[in-house]
Records
---
Amino acid sequence: MLEMEAVRKIIRRALEEDIRSGDVTTSNALTGSETGLATALAKEDLVVAGMDVFREVFRLRDGGLLYETELIDGARAPRGTILATVSGSLASILTAERVALNLFQRMCGIATLTKQFVDAVAGTKAKILDTRKTMPGLRILDKYSVRAGGGRNHRYGLYDGLLIKDNHIEAAGGIAEAVRRVRGQAPLMVKIEVEVKDLAEVEEALAAGADVIMLDNMPVHAMKQAVQRIGGKALVEASGNVTLATVRAIAETGVDFISAGVLTHSARAADISLKVKRRP
Amino acid sequence: MLEMEAVRKIIRRALEEDIRSGDVTTSNALTGSETGLATALAKEDLVVAGMDVFREVFRLRDGGLLYETELIDGARAPRGTILATVSGSLASILTAERVALNLFQRMCGIATLTKQFVDAVAGTKAKILDTRKTMPGLRILDKYSVRAGGGRNHRYGLYDGLLIKDNHIEAAGGIAEAVRRVRGQAPLMVKIEVEVKDLAEVEEALAAGADVIMLDNMPVHAMKQAVQRIGGKALVEASGNVTLATVRAIAETGVDFISAGVLTHSARAADISLKVKRRP
Amino acid sequence: MLEMEAVRKIIRRALEEDIRSGDVTTSNALTGSETGLATALAKEDLVVAGMDVFREVFRLRDGGLLYETELIDGARAPRGTILATVSGSLASILTAERVALNLFQRMCGIATLTKQFVDAVAGTKAKILDTRKTMPGLRILDKYSVRAGGGRNHRYGLYDGLLIKDNHIEAAGGIAEAVRRVRGQAPLMVKIEVEVKDLAEVEEALAAGADVIMLDNMPVHAMKQAVQRIGGKALVEASGNVTLATVRAIAETGVDFISAGVLTHSARAADISLKVKRRP
Amino acid sequence: MLEMEAVRKIIRRALEEDIRSGDVTTSNALTGSETGLATALAKEDLVVAGMDVFREVFRLRDGGLLYETELIDGARAPRGTILATVSGSLASILTAERVALNLFQRMCGIATLTKQFVDAVAGTKAKILDTRKTMPGLRILDKYSVRAGGGRNHRYGLYDGLLIKDNHIEAAGGIAEAVRRVRGQAPLMVKIEVEVKDLAEVEEALAAGADVIMLDNMPVHAMKQAVQRIGGKALVEASGNVTLATVRAIAETGVDFISAGVLTHSARAADISLKVKRRP
Amino acid sequence: MLEMEAVRKIIRRALEEDIRSGDVTTSNALTGSETGLATALAKEDLVVAGMDVFREVFRLRDGGLLYETELIDGARAPRGTILATVSGSLASILTAERVALNLFQRMCGIATLTKQFVDAVAGTKAKILDTRKTMPGLRILDKYSVRAGGGRNHRYGLYDGLLIKDNHIEAAGGIAEAVRRVRGQAPLMVKIEVEVKDLAEVEEALAAGADVIMLDNMPVHAMKQAVQRIGGKALVEASGNVTLATVRAIAETGVDFISAGVLTHSARAADISLKVKRRP
Amino acid sequence: MLEMEAVRKIIRRALEEDIRSGDVTTSNALTGSETGLATALAKEDLVVAGMDVFREVFRLRDGGLLYETELIDGARAPRGTILATVSGSLASILTAERVALNLFQRMCGIATLTKQFVDAVAGTKAKILDTRKTMPGLRILDKYSVRAGGGRNHRYGLYDGLLIKDNHIEAAGGIAEAVRRVRGQAPLMVKIEVEVKDLAEVEEALAAGADVIMLDNMPVHAMKQAVQRIGGKALVEASGNVTLATVRAIAETGVDFISAGVLTHSARAADISLKVKRRP
């Protein structure tokens, strides 16, 4: 579930960014009493994410608007699907339209791309993970959209997961020392993950007792060896410029998780239009 | 110039989103006294945008970090270019790294895509424009990045430009009436633009005295006729799912401006890495 | 229309400023169950502005209060007119009273003064404009009140209008250069205005292609010459310590707009009282 | 002393209101490297208030600007006095100018008007007080300006003074009951004031043990009687549409304090200009 | 009465602190459609404070939750008392539970301790006062809880009471000078209190005309002498590490007020449980 | 390490709560030019926590104050120890004093109490844990203070740990189902903990594959059996009204962790005074 209190902050900020002192076109070209119906239409095949966000934009703008949909997040919507309708004051709808679409199109775009990754690894044990390469200020939406597309979340931020990367290892003087340091201090409920670049480091991470081992940018055959060596003693995550073209081969190495920054740092906005009809 | 006070708000929010109660890995794996040098490297050809933003993330995290670069926004940086270096506390650098990259990669990504559009219309009079299809909360950065890539900004939001779209026209009962209404009320310094879908509406917009006429999703030959009919009596903007494949033909119709939502709603993040070396 | 989301921020801040930890008088002297009726009365002739603001203060304080009025913004209300009534919890009304009046009296004060300027130029083509000399934090209300009084808005801030003043001209090394610089960079939808102090500068501004020319503190006869010289090639605005005593003569020079800082930097609060009667 | 942390919030909000996404004129017409000197000049006789506020606006905009003045708040500055100078980046000065002046002119305006009231009662024991009729969001500045003009502050808000007005009395069923209720509950350090409209109510207020008695809109001869009757058993405040024309006569009745809403709800902005010279 | 607008800010901040990106347990372990009843139970004898705060936490989390209680703040609730019930969505109740209890337990804890102090001085004229030693960010709740327990509030902060302590006296060069300085500048409605450490200083404070005299850490017999010397010419407050063991003897010296920091800086949380039952 | 950006928010809010419109005593009784030295003294044996917070309060109030200490967080400070000194403007020190002490005394109080628990279990394998029963708005400080006292943190909030309590189990229809649900959805890096009340539930939790098992309010002998049954297959946490009197016996059952709400919901403020001396 999406934490709506956090979502509302994002929406209010977005509406304020777009409207500020007022929508000069709508407030002057309309009398304010016109009513009508707006229809959100999928103009390409997509996976739905963000229905509650889309609705909430209109609701925060005008509590009197009515919203209807028959879809839920995670559903596939082929080109031509009516995603939702909003009815009520045309002035309210027109002023909120752009923000609602900007958020909804991004969320559906991420879910759609994620689903493509998930489908690509179907039949393997690998789960698709997101990263922290999310849009600044929108992480909660980005990570939710990945889940709507069938992916799983890695950590939310620097505060809720111990991921010891190459830089930390260098700074601490080795994997063993780095893990030792964090183990003594970390919050009880957080796992420890170690990033490794070759099999030698896999050994070190195992010896240090990592909960999760991240294979960073390793060739597929090395990943396979690593998975066998780890043999269930830790969870295994593959990472590093994973694409739709490469994800299947990585999954077949037997890793537990594959993380892909592209899901959130370079997702295209889904093509969705909002058509408005005035009520006579 | 970027309004840095507004940028700082974005950065603080992004750092807070990522760090919250603390970077548990860095604060535990490092002693805090390690120092070193971080190098930002272009891993593909790109156009630079957001140098000040990149630096400001590190500066806000730790005023003692030193930043150096020889590039300015708008510069082309071929694959392999060192974009900037940051030196000082490793703990500070590692904690700020992700936010700095997330912002910088997006900005460079937008600038790079914009430049491709600008190059595609070279030799015509057409200027490339952005739209309001920006990332919620990041509009000021998105629009700046478009400028860094050689594009121009349309309006910033609903408050600083009168753009009468089909919906407003329907609500008002025609172009003439819609323009008449807004003309009497609008702030003095804001222009009036009318969106039209065919030549008949071009006539109406001209008659109503629009400052700018937006040709929305019109075929190229119709755009050409529209440009001739308008004959300099208003500025002409072409709009509607413009892509790199179609932009040149549109530019050759003689329009003054071409707006492309893709610049900001679907730009890929530029590929940039940050490598850290510890000082002995 | 007033952007109510922005207005609510102003009201919440004002209530917080006045109430903070609590209204110690009302919360102690009343039991909290008393109800009654409050009547807002015009104690001098005035032009109404801010009805929605006045109501919203009470509504934000206590959603259960009832509000009634038969007047709309822009209406003339002679001395003795009942402007509105509020009924419900006396404790709520008494605690919100001062903030509601402080805002309403200022807004009516500005509208009333603006209407005097508008009436003074009746029969000429000149429109009365406001400036950026508004009360910090209350600009949206000040500018709305000017519209309620029959005036027009100039720009909202530094972000939505290009106004090249003497200082910019000096810095850029002349009007031509200053206009050339901004023309290449400015957002599409924003007009360019140039401030001039004599006829020589009028020529330069015309040559540079200004959309609007501001005659700053020029004598009336020089304004007249300027208007003739410009001859419709740009809009003309007169500015500089305009008062009720001087505005008519300025309007008769044929300028399109007259801006007056006094409307917002020195408007008197309209005299309005709120009388409360307890329900038995 | 002014609480500068609170002042900075006001200034940041004001700058944000005026600049938002950026000062499009200054950032485009200037290169950003121009430097110069700005001189704030009194264009009428005034009493200075807000020197620290004026400086802080420039300092918050650009920490590199230099500020100089030889005056302190409360000083009289005749027409033609140079109030202060600011030097450094012209872009910074021009962008901050309007906000700095808007605040400074209001503060000097209030101080100047207050001093006129203070001078008018010279030789009597009466002190001039402000009210809660301040500009929403700017109360801390308004009340400081009154002090700079030689006035005293009444309470800051509903939270730091018990003022039982006619409405509270009606709700509570009489002065005695109202005072009794608040006395048992009020914070220790806050005084109790009762508003009375005639001599009968003066008796009641005295009997109830009020610390301060406010004579509301009473004729001068009745005030005189009230003062004699009270005979030092409580402080006496006169209130109700007090003007420069009436304040002397009121003071001569022997009241301790005279409060005047006009000081803050209707003060004119003092006439101050900022002239900028570019450094060659 | 509690100022609920200020309370809501505290609650929103607390919920955000606890929930941030989402309650991962509740949102995943529950379907979201489960409903039930939660019962708040006193697990020790206590004095109730914060009923409205407890309810408001649930209401802000989910407007659909129903709340019932038969108790009001200030009531004594023996061990085993059902304090309140909340019914509706189990997901909403479980997510809000901890914040609701954290606030409610603290408030009841303070009220309970305060009541013990109040009972200890029963029959004397002494009133129990709080101090500014409250939990940062929660002062409004702490001070309200003291009132619910039968105590009185001293000042709210540095802004609404003039308390001249030893440090101010040293800085000003003596009690007389310190009082003289503040008397000329202070807001009209605020009393002046002077902290004294012996009888000599009592004399000075009396001579200076203090409204309240605080006997700081004086022996009981000296307090008695001080009370007699002051003889009603000022209110008398005893202060300094007052405990339940010492408060009675202090009260019997005849002081008007006794302030105790322990009420808020070291109150235990009252023992309250929330038991949830699922509706079939 | 403490995340200082989050700490500064807490401090600013606390200063604002105490000072608001201004410290009327200090700003009036002092001239503002007095300087001096303030000494923070331990008036009882304590464990230090919050040195950086104490210093930051003064630094945020006045960047010119100098701070010195020879102690670090976690150090034991016997009664009479000088904890730190602050020197500079007396006005700045006096205004910030109360907030600095309120925060510092709470933090040292928590660390001191935690250390008593840690000492009580010395020689066993048990680590002392905190809970979410922290002071609303101050959780980051409370949890840090527990670490300074030698304790460990459980989770920070509902977002960074999956703790399935009895209520979740009831709602989901059993431990197995609840764990199954969360396992499929939870972020990768977060552990799953199950609360159990008897040995039967221990079996279920083990079967479901819990990472951590919390023994809630179980008798000591039952805990011992549970530890043996679990046999290292999950971490074991003991919980439920743990006190200094009971903690040792619990530790000797062999549990890995013991959590104690009392550390943060009922810690006494450490007794610390700040003595100020004026520089001649």
Note: The first strand of chain E starts at residue 35 and ends at 42.
---
Amino acid sequence: MPAFDEAASRVGPPDAAAAEEARRRHDRLTKPAGSLGRLEDAGVRLCAIAGFCPPPVPQPAAVGVFAGDHGVLAEGVSPWPQEVTAQMVANFCAGGAAVNVLAAHVGADVIVVDVGVAGDLPAHPRLRSAKVRRGTANLADGPAMTLSEARQALDVGAQLAAGLAESGTRCLLTGDMGIGNTTPSAALIAALTGRAALEVTGRGTGIDDERWAVKVRVVESAVSRAGDVTDPVELLATIGGLEIAALAGFVIGGAAARLPVLLDGVIAGAAALVATAILPECAGYLFAGHRSTEPGATAALDHLELKPLIDLDLRLGEGTGACLALPVLQGAAKILRDMATFESAGVTEDHG
Amino acid sequence: MPAFDEAASRVGPPDAAAAEEARRRHDRLTKPAGSLGRLEDAGVRLCAIAGFCPPPVPQPAAVGVFAGDHGVLAEGVSPWPQEVTAQMVANFCAGGAAVNVLAAHVGADVIVVDVGVAGDLPAHPRLRSAKVRRGTANLADGPAMTLSEARQALDVGAQLAAGLAESGTRCLLTGDMGIGNTTPSAALIAALTGRAALEVTGRGTGIDDERWAVKVRVVESAVSRAGDVTDPVELLATIGGLEIAALAGFVIGGAAARLPVLLDGVIAGAAALVATAILPECAGYLFAGHRSTEPGATAALDHLELKPLIDLDLRLGEGTGACLALPVLQGAAKILRDMATFESAGVTEDHG
């Protein structure tokens, strides 16, 4: 069975009994009930994902940075040339990019996966070669890729998740690289949330009004062309990207392994929408690392009913926002594991 | 010279040239300009504080947890009995409280300071005894403490900051413990921001409507009684708390040592308002760890023009929100220190 289908067949719902046990435990810890706010919610969800309480600390963690190129770049949606995707992959391998710095800071591994970079990439221990094709076709002219290519890319992501889980990784972080990839992300978000292109199309790496207007038109026409596509995998093939498809597979692979999946920004948001459209149960395994300033990111989070752990106006991608959020998630687990209870500490409870 | 006066005499403005150098460096790093949002701003401010770029990573870090009791508890402003302050100090010493768990998680030391706990506390290596008095007087009846006691408490905080700086600590985090201390905090915030008691008085550890109405009346009358007090130290004495005064001294001590001071929640917000009222220059050394759900916290942050690094609906205090934010601040420094530039990585810049 292909890795993706195998993963999808194994995803079950999070464990409600473990969540309830975590809620009860929170109320016995030496703090006013509920006073750790959304950190408590995160701890409860980690228990539901693991199936027991206290939950394992989400550590070691790994960022899967999936890279791909985009034929839609020909429409002028980004000021950055396509070669930058490959150059940044080299930068990830050398350890000089933002995601390397922040991943090292929080103790997460970085695994770079070439799922569809246009150029050739020299071999590197940090780089996995899983090129499905050399960049997508221009989604403004026709489908970005074939259905078979979309499935292959889903497999690439699911395979990485399964391999990481098998080698003991306890938390998956999503990362991405692909010049032009906010355009297919906006298209997928519009198609899957029902929002207008104008609402979900942002400035990506920072584009001017003219280029933005072009981008909105490209997204509008892509969404309209995909209007009668109901199958999420076909939607990926029609208006998606190779790294987005791989990320959707990564998300479902993480859920299959009962691991928390910490999403980065707007590209991850698009991938998570696709993953939950394929398999709604995987939503229970997702955490939003941060809220990107890209408007599509907020639309995706709203649709996924996720609140971000960090909100610092980031819009870089690569997995940087997920890395910054990892210590928060780990802290949520340690609160449940390590705090004293009222009884054990001899602390008097409130008098109502 | 008393520790506080000595510290206050040494506080200078942050270094604008180092900040400008950091901005220029950010624009050379391999990422779209400005794409790390407020993480970039934090890095710029760390350079301004240190006086050079890249800035030192704010590490090692220490949480100063100042503990004191409050005579105003007699008014029924909290459902927790006064003895819980001492019990929680014992819990901090034993390592079982939330601040212990989160400080250990982020690699920060916890130093507990008894600046005004009512009861006797057994000696412990983690506890510094600097009791100025056994809890404040009831601020609903008269001044919470004398001017001399307020100055002594300021000294306690400034002394701890100076000692930590001398032993190599590179980041100060604020923490607090004191049953009833959201009441004097709300009073100080109302007095120093000009907001109404109703706007800045919250539910603290979680009180019902009836108790909250009592608390609002207590805050209103305290603020009205302090109406003609213009000297911030006299304000502390009139409607403050011993741990709040110590925290104000800690803030100014940190600024004097040119260290970043990472504020926790509403108690820290009140202390920071007092500190900046005494010495406006210390504002440049402050970072808001998080936004407490206490309404006074937001009022204080607005007045201080600080945006929180974390916003997770916490309302525990102890320093927990500051601990959760520490990895973000450290990440901001590492971005400036460790990322590759466009030149060094051979990455093409955008074509505008």
Note: Chain A is about 50% helix and 10% strand.
